[in-house]
Amino acid sequence: MRRCLVTRERLAPSSMIRFVVAPDKTVVPDLDARLPGRGIWLSARRDVLETARTRGGFARAARCQVIIPSDLVGLIEAGLLRRLTDTLGLARRAGQAVCGYAKVREWIVAGTAGLVVQASDGSPDECVRLLSGARSLPVVKPLDAAQLGKVFGREHTVHAALRTGALADRLKQDSKRFAGLADVAVLRTPEVSGERVEQADR
Questions:
Q1: Where in the chain are the domains?
Q2: Alpha-carbon gap, residue 162 to 42, rounded angstroms
Q3: Which of 104, 109, 89 minimizes the C-alpha distance to 139?
């Protein structure tokens, strides 16, 4: 468990964003939580990031002046989207993911699916029909149909599913983190152009 710098809540690292301060004093998001250095942990929420960015949180935690990229939230969102597409691509190549209504429905009925991925611009009613009569499953919606289709080599894809396992868990956690930053509900279970210099408070 890690404590959020802003809210002081103790949360699982997988639901948070870790930051480190580079040698040049730039604040760097560490989405894999593997970079060397003392970690600064924040809840994966846009309002929390903005509070830390504008009220001296990073500088206090680092105990020095730090440089904050002006598009910090955008950098994190882009990084999470890369992780999401990479995870989906890895699952597809490993035979751990399928797409298309019929195949996804087959996995759901068979109990093979551990996570359903629906395009963010897909029909909610169609998703409910897809899951009808089956056990409750988490549904994430971080990508639109074109982005989801690109992962599967199609022009567009509305539905996909991942087998129960580590890749499904990773995709679910990253989708939740992305949802918190993008301020959209992408997880449910149906029934550097500029820089800002921050100084530590004295």
A1: 2-70+193-198, 76-188
A2: 28
A3: 104
For residue 181, what pLDDT is reported?
A: 87
Low-confidence stretches of the chain (pLDDT beneath 50): 184-199, 201-202
Segment holding 54, helix H or strand E: helix 46-54
Instruction: Place domain 2-70+193-198 in its CATH homologous superfamily.
Output: YlxR-like (3.30.1230.10)
**pTM for this model (two decimals):** 0.85
Are the CB atoms for 1 and 12 separated by under 8 Å? yes
CA distance 176 to 187: 6
Please name the helix (run of DSSP H) or strand (run of DSSP E) that holds residue 47, with its range, or none: helix 46-54
Q: Give pLDDT, residue 110.
A: 93
Alpha helical stretches, state H, 55-196: 57-62, 72-93, 101-110, 124-131, 145-151, 166-182
Superfamily of domain 76-188: Ribosomal protein L30/S12 (3.30.1330.30)
